[in-house]
Design a protein that fits this description.
Helix content: 25-40%
Strand order of the largest sheet: 3-10-11-17-14-13-12
CATH class of the largest domain: Alpha Beta
CATH topology of the largest domain: BirA Bifunctional Protein, domain 2
Distance between the termini: 29 Å
Structural class: alpha+beta
CATH superfamily of the largest domain: Bira Bifunctional Protein, Domain 2
Number of domains: 3
Bound molecules: glycyl-adenosine-5'-phosphate
């Protein structure tokens, strides 16, 4: 198991998964840009989630709400009053800490112990100005969670889709929090992406639904390549529950910097819909067609996933170091459907004779798989590079390929090589990827 994030951070930069944000300007604290491989993996995560949650379920629909919402939304949701952390600041070095999670063994940059201010309430929502004059009238918040768009659009979705309880709305999008202590690479940032579900149901059914979502979350973790031996359920104690929650399970993961929250599952009751009714004056009731149009405000179970933390847990789970012929081999053992590239096409030589056959194979495979083409450096170095970026299969075309119409396929995990006829290559991969 990794003891520090360092090997992942340096591989991520070296191979093009994740770069420090605004790198050529010396960076920006706690901001990260996803490179070609990281962007592809984030897309793979979101596409797989959306497919399973929205496209393949009759009881779910999708939504793509605006990042900036009417500020009244955040009054109704309770975020203006309660989305706070206790902030303390050292009077000598000006470093800021969360009073509730501060370790106590931190030393002041100006020497000796910190001289801390009294804790003050610090709201985590970012404010921005929509108006041209910059006065308070145009003030808006950047959303701190995607969830509220799903509550605010509950009636619109109900009217347009005629869904019946239980049903859910799902959304993927950016959220923003002015965290007091961001850090640990992409674990806690000010800007991040969430994949959230608001599952609307009758109050008496919440426990059953909660349990079934908890199981689904664990199954999905395994399916995308998160090591489930490193994933743990934590029942959040009553006094630590968010203002809207009656029960929360955190899914914690053994990151190299400690066991920390990866995802969450909350029972939000009817808190949000009731508060939006009160603040907007609009009715957000559901009329039950099977029970004489009985009117209820549905309750909600909310499974929530951070895209960035999902990627980090996948990187940590996949990272492996082995010794091969006295040399270190680093392999990212991603699930094949989640890897940035699924197949690498590698002609042994750049010579003209191989270019036609290589092009044909590449163009044929790229219609179905995410393929990379690489003809630079020795084949050994190219294999090592593909191992480091987690490509499950390499296809090598050599001069014999011109005669025997076959190529060598190398397996990332076993490093075994097989000679496969070009004609059978597609069905060979069909078997492998299914
Ligand atoms: N709507 C409920 C909600 O937002 P949360 O536990 O505050 O709940 C949900 O956030 C998920 O979003 C977390 O489990 C985590 O994966 C991700 N997340 C939260 N804050 C984050 C941050 N500052 N940086 C990266 N991911 C974050």
């Amino acid at each position: 198991m990794l003891e520090s994030l360092e090997p992942i951070v340096s591989l991520a930069k070296r191979r093009g998964f994740i770069f420090p944000g605004s790198d050529i300007y010396g960076g920006l604290a706690n901001s990260w840009d996803y490179g070609p491989l990281g962007a592809q993996m984030r897309m793979n995560i979101k596409t797989d989630w959306w497919k399973q949650i929205v496209e393949q379920r009759a009881d779910m629909v999708g939504l793509d709400g605006a990042i900036m919402m009417n500020p009244k939304v955040w009054e109704a949701s309770g975020h203006v009053d309660t989305f706070n952390d206790p902030l303390v600041e050292c009077k000598k070095c000006n470093k800021r800490f969360r009073a509730d999670t501060m370790s106590g063994d931190e030393k002041c940059l100006k020497g000796k112990d910190h001289e801390l201010s009294e804790p003050r309430t610090f709201n985590l929502m970012f404010q921005t100005s929509l108006g041209k004059t910059g006065d308070d009238k145009g003030m808006a918040y950047l959303r701190p969670e995607t969830a509220q768009a799903m509550f605010v659009n509950f009636k619109n979705v109900l009217d347009t889709t005629r869904k019946r309880l239980p049903f859910g709305i799902a959304q993927i999008g950016k959220a923003f929090r002015n965290e007091i202590t961001p850090g640990n690479f992409i674990f806690r940032t000010l800007e991040f992406e969430q994949m959230e579900i608001e599952y609307f149901l009758e109050e008496e059914n919440w426990e059953e639904s909660f349990e079934s979502w908890a199981n689904w979350m664990e199954e999905w973790a395994a399916s995308v390549g998160i090591n489930t031996d490193m994933l743990h359920r934590l029942e959040v104690p009553k006094k630590e529950l968010a203002h809207y929650s009656k029960r929360t399970l955190d899914f914690e993961f053994d990151f190299p910097f400690g066991t920390k929250e990866l995802w969450g599952l909350a029972y939000r009751t009817d808190f949000d819909l009731k508060n939006h009714e009160k603040h907007s004056g609009e009715s957000l009731v559901y009329s039950d067609p099977s029970d004489n149009k009985r009117k209820i405000v549905p309750h909600v179970v909310e499974p929530t996933f951070g895209v960035d933390r999902t990627l980090l847990a996948m990187l940590v789970s996949a990272y492996s170091e082995e010794e091969v012929k006295g040399e270190k081999r680093v392999v990212m053992k991603f699930k094949p459907h989640m890897a940035p590239y699924q197949v690498a096409v590698l002609p042994l030589s750049k010579k003209e004779e191989l270019s036609g056959i290589t092009q044909e194979i590449f163009e044929d495979l790229i219609n179905t798989y995410r393929c990379e083409y690489d003809d630079t450096g020795s084949i050994g170095k190219r294999y090592r590079r593909q191992d480091e970026i987690g490509t499950p299969y390499c296809v090598t075309i050599d001069f014999d390929s011109l005669e025997d119409k076959a190529v060598t396929v190398r397996d990332r995990d076993t490093m075994e090589q097989e000679r496969i006829s070009i004609e059978e290559l597609k069905s060979y991969f069909e078997n492998k990827f299914n």
